[in-house]
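User: Round two. Same drill as before: sequence, then structure, for each protein.

Assistant: Same drill it is. First protein:
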Amino acid sequence: MLHHKKFFVITALFGLMIIGMAAVRPQDDPKPKHNFKVLPKDISHDDLDKVMDAWKAALGVKCNFCHAPSADSTSHHLDFASDAKPEKNIARHMYKMTARINKKYFSFDKDDIRNSIPAISCVTCHRGSPHPGEVK
């Protein structure tokens, strides 16, 4: 009988411990929100990284140049969906502008896998500087 009581008490304590751990477990991060206005809505994560890396290199900046910090002051992450920084909308405008220029004035060449190779891009004017014409 004593062994049954010990077993019951240990099982009950273990169950309470599991319930307590589940109650204080931090919430899972929600799936990141996207705010694509000029890039394809179905762009893959790898392709998005390639585009962002090309833009960073062309302007000689880091992600926080266009992306605002998270509204959560305890988080040191960027809020990629936020439009709080005007630089993000400027980047969208510039992206559309280069696409219009390429379409109107240049014939698109195709690479081996039939992807368009634009004649001009961010680096054409920026050359590693966040503001064209500015000497780094």
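Second protein:
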Amino acid sequence: MTQVEDTSREMRLDRDSFAQGYFENAVYRHWDPYAIEGLEEDKQKLMDEDDLTEAEYEELRQTLARFGAGEEAVTEDLMPLGLVLEDINDQMFVSSQIYEEAKHTQFFDRYWRDVINPVAEHHGFEVTNPTDQRYYPDGYIQLFDDTEAAMELLLEEDTPENRAKAYCHYHLTVESVLAQTGYYGITSAFSSKGSDEVAIREFPHLEGLVEGISKIRSDEGRHVGFGMQKVRRYVQSGEVDEQVVQDTLQELMPHVANTVNDFEEAVNAVPLVTYARDKLTRRIDIITDEDAVIPDVDELVSLDTDGTAAAD
């Protein structure tokens, strides 16, 4: 039955659904990756760091390369989910999510062009591309390969369990654990927020980078909340055994750890791994505990003064 023949609804949209609420929040909070200010100042600050070593700078490039590739990958890989969702409110939200992932890709590409390469040239460092395979450890590659496979499986076998696994891969691991850990690390190293334990050396505050990260984290609060709502409903309704969710998340955690634990020159990896494991535990608790409450959308997209999001 086509949408124009659908007589089951009085109105086209359910304004009270959490998916429609997330979509409206996305429209309200729209931002332009080319309007983020402060990149010229970031570039100058990094140029003024006369004692910056190439090994230290390489870890910044490593971080941003992984973010850019990750945002590009999920932009591509989310489409199967959009194709199998039946509800127009869900479809609208996932459409907005794909658009936002594309914007995130755009921001990291801009930062590499406008800041990373000019600073490398200034210091006489090797000028590298964000697609250089040196930046991607085996665990990172496996995580995104597994996520792509979980999404594509929906086109062959669309079941509640496979949907739950797809949400676990993308919304609850890639975005909720890996990305949030990376954002926490960047905020800690390049601003006054976050943890003092992350940065080994004292970096200048990079307001342009941190502002872009803050906008991206605001978007991803919605993405994480959407996935948590979906998986929680599957578990609480009994359609999917909670052990499937726990097993899927636990199986992916080593890939996350492998992605964040290879820093040693400028960043301390230990608090990042700890942060990631704490996020994973919190996700499982919210999904499996009947009394747990997922924050509303405004809280999900807000940032606390310590640089952490409510979705954390």
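The two ends are 40 Å apart (CA to CA).

User: Perfect.
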